[in-house]
Write the C-alpha cells for this entry.
Amino acid sequence: MTHDDTTDSDGDADADASTESESPAESDEDPAARTPGGGDAPEPEPIEPAAPEAFGLVQAWWGDGKGKTTAAMGMGFRAAGHGYRVHMLQFMKGGADSVEGVRGEYNAIAAMPGFSYENAGHYGWHGLLDGSADDEHEAKASAAFSRAEELVAGAADADLTAPLPLDGDPDDGVHMLLLDEVLYAADRGLVDPDEVVALAESKPDDLELVLTGSHAEPDYLDGVADLITNVRKQTHPFDAGHRARRGTEY
C-alpha cells in the first residue's frame, strides 16, 4: 500500500465518521413531530362553523351487510364535529312494525350542532305484505327525490367554500348531503337510476354527496361515484331469528 493510498483511506474514514456523527442528531427527532398532528393526541374542541377544504366527492354505499346507513351517519357526525353543515334525507324508512317509534340516531342528530335530518319514507317496506301499498311507497319516494333536487339546488346557490350557520336551513346550503336509502329506492324502481346519475352529475363541485342503500350493485354509478363500497354480509343475527335491536338497528 502506498502513502497516497493510506491517506485516501484515512480521509474516507474521517468523512464516514463525520457523517456518522451527524446521524444521531437527526435520528433524535421524533418522526411523529413531522405529522399533521405534531405527535399530539387529539383533544376535543368547541364546535364552531367552518368550511371543509377537500369536499366534493360522490360516495355510494351498497350491499347486503349491515352498516351502510351507519357509515353514512358516522361520516355525518365526523363532519359536523369539524363545524361543517350536514343534512340527511331518508328515503323508504317511514317506520315498520319491527322497530319502535323512536330512533336513537334522530335523538343524537337533534343534539349535534350542524347536523339535521328529515324523513320522507312511507310506513312499512315496499314489496312486502305488511299492509302498506306499493303505490304509496312510490309516491313518497318520488317526493323525496324532488326534495333531494331542491337540497342540491340550494347547495349550488350557497358558497360552500365558506362556513355555514350550524342552525341554518338546509335549503340555504349544506357541505355534506346524505341521501339514505336512495339506492334502494332506485333498485325497487321507485326512483329512476338515470335521475340519480343526473343528480350526482349536477351537484356543485364542493358538495359531498353520500348515497346509500340497495343489496344490488348500482352499476349505473360506475364512472360517476368517486367511492363505491360494497358492505358485504358474512354473518347477520337476523339469519338466526333476531329482530331489530334498540341501540344497534334503531
User: Anything to note?
Assistant: The chain has two domains: 3-34, 58-240. Helices lie at 3-27, 68-81, 104-110, 134-157, 182-187, 193-202. The chain has six helices and six strands.
